[in-house]
Amino acid sequence: MDWMIRVKNLSVKLGEANVLNNVSFEVKKGEFTGIIGPNGAGKTTLIKALLKQIPFTGEVKINGKVGYVPQLSTFNREFPLSVYEFVKLPIMKEKNWRQQVDILLQKVGLEGFGEKLVGKLSGGEYQRISLARALINKPDVLILDEPESGIDEMGKARFYNLLNELRVEKDITILMVSHDIGMIFEKCTNIMCLNKTLHCHGPTKEIEPSQVKKIFGEFDIWIRSENHFEIEHKQIEKE
Amino acid sequence: MEFIKDIIQYEFLRVSLVSTILTSVITSFISPIIVYKKMEFIGDGLAHAIFAGVAFAVIFQFNIFFGAILATIVFAFLTYKISQSYKLSESTIIGILLPVFMSIGTILFSKANKYTSDLLSYLFGNLLMISVNDLYFLIAITAFTIIFITSKTCEISYWISDESMAEFYGINTKKIKLLTLINISFAVVAALKIAGVVVMGAFLVLPGVFAKKNAKSLIHAVYKGLLFNMTCSIVGFIVSYYLNIPPGPSIVLISFAILVFTFLHFGEVIKTS
Predict the structure, then answer these.
(1) pLDDT at B234
(2) Residues of A (149-208) whose Cβ lies below 8 Å from B
(3) How crowded is residue A159: how many other Cβ atoms within 10 Å of its Cβ?
(4) What is the enclosing helix (H) or strand (E) of A185?
(5) Residue B190 and residue B137: Cα distance in Å, rounded?
(6) Which positions in chain B touch A79 (Cβ < 8 Å)?
(7) Residue A70 pLDDT more than 50?
(8) Which residue has the higher pLDDT, A57 or A40?
(9) Cα Rg for chain A, rounded, in angstroms?
(10) What is the Cα B78 distance to its own chain's centre?
(11) What mean pLDDT is predicted for residues B242-249?
């Protein structure tokens, strides 16, 4: 078995609307797959189905333990929770949690942050502690939902590099939803284009710009460098 | 000094003072949870739900506390169940249920004219209503509240800070939510005879608002709220004794004055909370 995530004929309906329609794919061990698609394409729905948080039809299988980095907005930043408490959530019942948290904080470059309050961290620091939390129970598969939203360009690049380092070092398979097409093409080994159904899926080098362009109907996409894409709304260009 | 003499002399005053202190302990533990989880409306909802339970107990002549507990638990359970089954926010559900329970209470009270003199006591609180038996009841609720919150601090913290992630990593957030709602119901019933229905909401919210500022953890917020609440309750109790006014509004006004003074005096006013 060389797949880590296997999805067959996945469909999700919310009320009368088809949010996902007959999606099938496999993600192999060690791949770093980026999911791209316009707003409302069903990217977050796909993640929720993979995590079995919503009802769906079809088959979803994940081979091994899952770590999950959600969108920034889910945390109540007013609540006084220390970084230690935040990161230890998946292993809260283990006795040596503090030692494990310290090791991971060092790994994500936030050594000595344990006693700080999560609500006082910057967006970039928050995403790194989210990553530490997702990694603490030694997952085989890491799923991330728009982890870069609200982070500046420098922070994004640092975050993606960190993900890649961890992927290689810990032999983790990563599946990530993102709006940043440029970063996805630069850092991911594989790409998935989603808009209600799967439009393309394969190694980054084999994905044609025209395939990506097709699903962003009302957007223009330029190639900034050989493997760097950027999207902008036509309207903005006209203005 | 007159107050101390009377405390020594009259058992009802001693019972009332101890009840006030126990109530302040209960609300200090529960209030930060209400404020951080933005459930302020539930205190008011439960307090008004009590009205129907009290009316029911008065008409059918059984223990007022049982009537109150029954009404708040039904209210809390309905809120929980409807929020789980339909996509309605808790505030919306409470907004619907609150007038329903109040209407039932009002109709029941209107059919029991001879008891309407009690009505004001339940609306605004009355120290004379507190008996030694009530004290035992308060001790039991205080013990339940302290044990529940101190033993489940971690789970409650994860539930408040990020419910979906808590659930993802195996915390039974539905159970925590239901137990919290039941605990809030108990707190509301505990504060009934001191606070009364009308100002109950403030009892459940003010300590949490005070404690929230610069708190380092949920338990730290509880300790801060406890210090604030104890001070306000004892001072409010003494003021109500000297001015011969209901204790609930007296404690609420003292709490509000201290809250405003603290925020103004120590800067960063209310915008941080």
Answers:
(1) 92
(2) none
(3) 22
(4) helix A181-187
(5) 8
(6) 36, 157, 160-161, 218
(7) yes
(8) A57
(9) 18
(10) 19
(11) 85
B189-216: per-residue pLDDT in tens?
888 878 777 777 788 899 999 998 889 9
From chain A, pick out residues whose CB is under 8 angstroms from the CB of B162: 70, 74-76
End-to-end CA distance of chain A: 52
Q: Which residues of chain A does B160 touch, with a Cβ-Cβ cutoff of 8 Å?
A: 76, 79
Mean pLDDT of chain A: 83
Residue B138, min C-alpha distance to chain A (Å): 29
Chain A residues 109-128 within an 8 A CB cutoff of chain B: 117-118
Helix boundaries (H) for B172-272: 173-212, 218-243, 247-265
DSSP category for residue A44: H
Query: What are A89-129's pLDDT values in tens digits?
Result: 999 888 899 999 999 898 888 889 999 999 999 888 888 89
| Tokens encoding A176 | 């990530």
Residue keyed to tokens 């808009």: A195
A18, β-bridge pairs: A13
Q: Which residues contact A117 (CB under 8 A, 6 or more apart)?
A: A80, A81, A82, A83, B216
What chain A residue is nearest to B162 in terms of C-alpha separation? A75
Q: Is the pLDDT confidence value at A239 over 50?
A: no
pLDDT greater than 50 at residue A203: yes
Q: How many residues does chain B have?
A: 273
pTM above 0.90, yes or no: no
Query: Which residue in B173, B134, B139 sits closest to B37, CA to CA?
Result: B173
Pairwise CB contact (< 8 Å): A85 & B157: yes
Rounded-to-integer distance, Cα B207 and Cα B28, Å:
6
Nearest to B194 by CA among B248, B136, B239, B140: B248
Percent of chain B whose pLDDT exceeds 90: 33
Question: What is the model's pLDDT at position A156?
Answer: 78
Tell me whether residues B166 and A89 touch, CB distance under 8 A. Answer: yes
Between B114 and B44, the more confident residue is: B44
**Residue B144 C-alpha, separation from nearest chain A C-alpha, in angstroms:** 23
- d(CA A166, CA A160) in angstroms, rounded, equals 10
A92/B154 Cβ within 8 A: yes
